[in-house]
Design a protein that fits this description.
Number of domains: 1
Radius of gyration: 18 Å
CATH topology: Rossmann fold
CATH architecture: 3-Layer(aba) Sandwich
Oligomer: single chain
Shape: globular
Helix content: 40-55%
Strand content: 5-15%
Order of helices and strands: EHEHEHEHEHEHHHE
Largest sheet: 7 strands, parallel
CATH class: Alpha Beta
Number of strands: 7
């Protein structure tokens, strides 16, 4: 299937590793002109080189801190200046730290608001005018299954990613007439460094080994394994495509059936 992404310009946030990197690779493989960003310049350049080599496609790497309003605006501005436009925006971040309600002070809440909620808002705010100019755009937010089923030790992620989904669902109504769709992808347990870090945190709290914690996570997934970043990236690539033009305002689970609810 031709996804119709050749020569479209795609910006993927927090894309030097994990799910962001997999999404970037998938979009580049479909022929999109790619922009990736992250704080760690060394890892970012290595990711850009690898993706460009694998896909034989142009990749622009921009060092940026997504907690900075200035950096969010700058990433979009540099994207448009370099490639002449912006068609696809994938918002993403590394995720706030794990913890329970009384473990987290105001400063961590504020920092996590900037990282998880405001980074998406700022990137979208900067990107939308360029999409409106061309009457075509795709905004895809990577959030979490926790917006459907809260996880006790991830109160920051649960609270703020739910805010992203609420914002996106409202925005989907407002931008549909401009040819712009807005959707969310809700990963479950995907084998990334983030999941490994969470396993270590829970292992210390529960007196278990990280492997035992991961085995416990697998037991919750009907498919019987942890997901691969490439499996989530395939869903993102479809939502970015011409073929997904009638998919708008949705939140799609990529969790192997872990979430047991009906809606």
């Amino acid at each position: 299937m031709d996804l119709g992404l050749r020569d479209k310009v795609a910006l993927v946030a927090a894309s030097s590793r994990g799910m962001g990197r997999a999404c970037a690779h998938s979009l580049s493989a479909e022929g999109a002109k790619l922009v990736i960003c992250a704080r760690d310049g060394k890892k970012l350049r290595a990711a850009a080189d690898e993706i460009a080599g694998d896909t034989n496609n142009q990749v622009l790497a921009i060092v940026a801190d997504l907690t900075s309003a200035r950096d969010c605006r700058q990433v979009v501005q540099e994207t448009v200046e370099f490639f002449g436009g912006l068609h696809v925006l994938v918002t993403n971040n590394g995720g706030p730290p794990a913890g329970y309600f009384f473990d987290i002070d105001d400063n961590e809440w504020y920092r996590s608001v900037d990282l998880t909620l405001m980074s998406a808002i700022r990137l979208i705010r900067a990107a939308v005018p360029h999409m409106q100019e061309q009457s075509w755009g795709r905004i895809i937010n990577i959030t979490s299954v926790s917006v459907k089923e809260p996880l006790d030790d991830l109160i920051l992620s649960t609270s703020l990613r739910a805010g992203v989904v609420g914002m996106a669902r409202t925005l989907a109504n407002q931008l549909a007439g401009d040819g712009i769709t807005v959707n969310n992808v809700l990963p479950g347990y995907i084998l990334t460094e983030r999941v490994k870090e969470l396993a270590q945190t829970r292992a210390r709290a529960q007196g278990k080994s990280p492997d035992e914690v991961v085995d416990g996570l697998v037991e919750l997934v009907p498919i019987g394994r942890i997901g691969k970043p490439e499996e989530l990236a395939a869903v993102v690539a479809f939502l970015a495509s011409e073929q997904a033009s009638y998919v708008n305002g949705t939140s799609i689970l990529v969790d192997g059936g872990r979430y047991k609810g009906l809606m």
